[in-house]
Write a structure and sequence with these properties.
The chain is α/β, with parallel strands linked by helices and 187 residues long. It has helices at residues 13-22, 41-49, 58-63, 67-71, 89-94, 118-126, 162-186, and strands spanning 2-7, 28-35, 53-55, 77-80, 99-103, 131-138, 148-155. Helix 6 crosses helix 7 (162-186). The longest helix is centred in the last third of the chain and has 25 residues, at 162-186. It is globular and about 50 Å long. Bound molecules: 5-O-phosphono-beta-D-ribofuranosylamine. The site of 5-O-phosphono-beta-D-ribofuranosylamine has 13 residues, from helix 1, strand 5 and helix 7.
Length: 187
C-alpha cells in the first residue's frame, strides 16, 4: 500500500484530481491533507472525501512538531499541490527524494520567491511568451530548483489573460500530475 500526503494552500483542484485519479486503486491511498490556511478550499475537499487533514501554520511548519506524525503514515510521497510556504530543511532531509512540487510554468523560468498563482501567468504574458506549461520537480532547499521530473507545454494564445492561461494550465496539471505520481510510485 502506498500512502500519499498532499500539501495545499488554496482551492485544491489538483488535490481533487489526485484523489479522483487514485480512487479506483486499492494500492494507493491519500492518507492525509495538510494546509497552512484554516479557510482553504482544500479543507472542504478533505471533509467531503473523508480524508484526515491537519492545519500547519507557518509557525508550526517551522516548529517541526509534526514530523513523527507524518512519519507514522510511512508515506511513499509528499506532494505539494499549490502549497505556498517554503518547506523547512529538516522536513526535506527527513523525506529526501520523496517530496515533489508542481509549478505552473516552464522552470527554470518564472520560478522562485513570489512566483505563484497569477504572478506567474502575468509574468509569462508580459514577456510575450508563445508557450507556457507545467513543471513537476523534486523539492530541495531552494524554491523551484529541484530536479525536474516532467514538463508539459501548452500554447499562450493571443488575447489570453492570467485567468484563461491559468485555466489551460490547470487542465494540463490535472491530467499530468496524478499520472506522474503513479509513474513514480511504480519505480
Ligand atoms: C497550481 O497552478 C499549481 O501549479 C500551483 O498552485 C496552483 C494550485 O491550484 N503551485 P489548485 O489549488 O490545485 O487549484
Amino acid at each position: 500500500m502506498h500512502s500519499l500526503i498532499l500539501f495545499a494552500s488554496g482551492r485544491g483542484s489538483n488535490v481533487q484530481a489526485i484523489i479522483d485519479y487514485f480512487r479506483p486503486r486499492q494500492d494507493v491511498q491519500v492518507a492525509l491533507i495538510l494546509t497552512n490556511k484554516a479557510d482553504a478550499g482544500v479543507i472542504d475537499i478533505a471533509k467531503a472525501e473523508g480524508i484526515p487533514f491537519e492545519i500547519i501554520t507557518r509557525k508550526r511548519l517551522l516548529d517541526l512538531d509534526y514530523l513523527d506524525y507524518l512519519d507514522s503514515f510511512q508515506p511513499s510521497m509528499l506532494v505539494l499541490a499549490g502549497f505556498l510556504l517554503k518547506i523547512p530543511a529538516e522536513l526535506i532531509e527527513r523525506f529526501r527524494g520523496k517530496i515533489i512540487n508542481i509549478h505552473p510554468a516552464l522552470l527554470p523560468n518564472y520560478g522562485g520567491k513570489g512566483m505563484w498563482g497569477h504572478n506567474v501567468h502575468n509574468a509569462v504574458l508580459a514577456a510575450g511568451e508563445r508557450l507556457s506549461g507545467i513543471s513537476i520537480h523534486y523539492v530541495d532547499e531552494e524554491y523551484d530548483r529541484g530536479d525536474t521530473i516532467l514538463q508539459a507545454r501548452c500554447p499562450v494564445h493571443e488575447g489570453d489573460d492570467a485567468d484563461t492561461l491559468a485555466g489551460r494550465i490547470h487542465r494540463l496539471e490535472h491530467f499530468y500530475f496524478p499520472r506522474c505520481i503513479a509513474f513514480l510510485l511504480q519505480e
